[in-house]
Design goal:
single chain; alpha+beta; Aminopeptidase; 4-stranded antiparallel β-sheet; 3-stranded antiparallel β-sheet; 4 helices; 30% helix
């Protein structure tokens, strides 16, 4: 992934004093990730990024990078991974951290298995992750993604302040 081939956009959310409505349909459950969820998390990352045409041809590098971040930070108290489950199976995730080398708070972006997309899970995962960052005392949160990515639409709908034509601090 190179910055010259992708239209990067940054989203920022003010967190201080903000409440996040987080609801999911009855068949879903949100919970914090555990180290024994690593394999399921990696599968969800792979299927969700593969389902977004924006990332075609880039998914191997994305899976490796995100997989490494998950393994490095899964037990870190300064990071949080929220999972969505259906029938006891992990079908979505979003990972955030108080700080990271990329100067972004998102470690994974929103990842939802394609069979469960369009049901509000991305919004719920985003709300849960931002609430966790707020509860850690952060005043704001930030993420950078491709302007045409599915996640960008979720970030827009969730009230992220969009800044276009930015550099991605961790471009592969």
């Amino acid at each position: 992934m190179t910055a010259g081939l992708t239209k990067w956009v940054r989203f920022d959310w003010p967190l201080k004093g903000r409440d996040f409505e987080i609801s999911v349909a009855d068949e879903y459950r949100l919970r914090a990730a555990r180290p024994d969820d690593l394999e399921a998390m990696q599968r969800v990352v792979a299927t969700s990024y593969a389902s977004d045409a924006v990332w075609a041809g880039k998914t191997d590098a994305i899976e490796q990078g995100i997989g490494a971040r998950i393994r490095e930070r899964i037990s870190d108290p300064a990071a949080h991974f929220v999972l969505a489950e259906c029938g006891g199976q992990v079908i979505g995730l979003n990972g955030v951290a108080i700080s990271s080398p990329t100067k972004m708070n998102f470690l994974t972006g929103i990842c939802v298995d394609p069979e469960h997309q369009g049901r509000g899970l991305g919004t719920a995962l985003l709300g849960q992750a931002l609430a966790w960052l707020r509860d850690q005392g952060l005043a704001s949160a930030t993420v950078t993604t491709d302007a045409d990515a599915v996640a960008a639409r979720v970030y827009d709908r969730f009230g992220g302040e969009r800044t276009g034509n930015v550099e991605y601090p961790g471009a592969l």
